[in-house]
Amino acid sequence: MTDPWVALEPGADPAERVRALRRAHETFTRAGTVPRPVRAVVADSWRRSARAGVGPDGTADVELSGTDLGAYRAEHPLAAVMPLFRELLGSFAADGEHLLAVCDAQGRLLWVEGHPATRRRADGMNFVPGARWAESAVGTNAPGTAVALDRPVQVFAAEHFSRRVQPWTCAAAPVHDPRTGRVLGAVDITGGNGLAHPHSLGFVQAVARAAESQLSLLRPPGQPAADTLELSVLGRDEARLRVRGQTLRLSRRHSEIVVLLARHPEGLTGDELLCALYEDESVTPVTLRAELARLRRVLGPGLLASRPYRLTAVVESDVTVVERRLETGAVADAALAYVGPLLPASQAPAVVRLRRLLADGLRTALLARHDPDLLAGWAHATWGEDDLEVWRALATLRPTPTVHAHLRQLETELRAPGEWGGVG
């Protein structure tokens, strides 16, 4: 086969390939080995699915519905290119009795549109808006595997890990933020075995590239306006601030000040800032005024006002992104946006409180979700490696020898079952 990402090579008999794949799938689920003719990309995906604890008879869970789904879709960047998807893929899906589907970066379906009869059939396997079709949730499938691998992929019939999905064939391609390169989600075409053709994969890939081109010309929902300050403070000791087209790296003290002023758009008095920034009560107002004067020069004219001290532009920060996603129940997306503790080296009292508040909120949501992938992401990060409660929860959901060994080591070292390592 010339292209390993295409399901069927020219001249292959689809019916015979389906029978061979079903035998291979049964062998894998029974013995854990992957015989021919399973493609390497599918074999690797089956193994990842099994490691994630996905069962071959499972189905997708619906995580968002009703007003929550509507609000999440409205704020998602791919909402801006849905008219393009409908124009390029909509008639193809409807005429061919296929489905057009769009998912987010976590494999959660946002839109599923197309032929009415096909949609009714798809409802039976929860291929519906709001359902999570991540590879780690339902196994090998085109939209979930496309975002997992960050590349276009075609999945044919019994290549799907879930038996319930094996009557279907799909092709999907990831869509990226043209400004950052981050995966926003994927566009997918799902239907019968007739889609197992190189043209369907090339078509959906071309649609994804067209969407990225349009996104580069538009300001997607949620992208800051020109007069908005973009603040990045998670996982870094010194903030990065995007100001009027320039990226500034702030000192540690200036980073703390900007975080606190962003938190209080109404402003803070000099005394309030002193209490928020310094544990040492001997620090004088003169010291603070000097810091603010230096910060004003760094930011440029007109951005830092006084009496009270406040920022004159709207601030969009990575902290508020995590908080908004938690508020809407998008826990997986919140975990994805949380790249580390807020200014981890800061000892400013107000910053320490905010850091703990954010970490505790996300951690609580992860524990409540009971998702082994999300818990593993926290547990294996530097800020979660000593989190005893998370490791215990992970051991319950994913009782592998590695997890149990780490848990025993933690319990021996900490000797305090009620404590967790957390974020300081």
From TrEMBL:
Protein name, as recorded: GAF domain-containing protein
InterPro entries referenced in this protein's UniProt entry, alphabetically: GAF (IPR003018), GAF-like_dom_sf (IPR029016), OmpR/PhoB-type_DNA-bd (IPR001867), WH-like_DNA-bd_sf (IPR036388)
Organism per entry: Streptomyces griseoaurantiacus
Pfam families named in the record: GAF (PF01590)
Key word Transcription present: yes
Domain OmpR/PhoB-type: 245-311
Keywords recorded for this protein, A-Z: DNA-binding, Transcription, Transcription regulation
